[in-house]
Write a structure and sequence with these properties.
- Helices cover 29% and strands 37% of the residues.
- It has one domain (29-122).
- By secondary structure, the protein is α+β, with helices and mostly antiparallel strands.
- It has a 4-stranded antiparallel sheet, with helices on one face.
- The longest helix has 19 residues, at 2-20.
- It is elongated.
- The relative contact order is 0.16.
């Protein structure tokens, strides 16, 4: 009788231990998987940024200055953070044909979501003047 109670206790303990673990966590994507996806985001930003209405007489050239990816080890839903840096050259012609050139840099920050398996843009409000 004692053996049956001990065996039943062992089975119950094993069942409780197994159920408390929960479902296995999904595998986190490797850097080699998420890097090309962020590169695609950079290419799309470049393509869209250079599409300007010719009536505006503005020509913009977006050059990808860098793509950085950092691991976020304590966040299983968003395990990667990334940023895309651009150097942008804007050329504007006024009504007399005089050219004005502006050059500046922009950075776009993202996190990778394991739920939707995509990079999500992280809005960073500009500091107040």
């Amino acid at each position: 009788m004692r053996r049956a109670v001990a065996a039943l206790g062992a089975v119950l303990a094993a069942t409780l231990a197994a159920s408390s673990c929960g479902p296995p966590s999904p595998e986190l994507p490797a850097r080699e998987v998420v890097t090309p996806l962020l590169q695609q985001e950079a290419d799309a930003l470049k393509r869209d940024g250079e599409k300007l209405d010719p009536v505006l007489r503005v020509r913009a050239t977006w050059t990808i200055a860098g793509i950085d990816i950092q691991e976020r080890p304590n966040d299983r839903e968003k395990p990667w953070a990334g940023s895309i840096r651009f150097k942008i050259r804007s050329e504007t012609k006024d009504e007399r044909g005089q050219l004005t050139v502006d050059e500046f840099e922009r950075q776009f920050d993202y996190v990778y979501s394991t739920t939707i398996k995509r990079w999500i843009f992280q809005y960073q409000p500009s500091p107040a003047p």
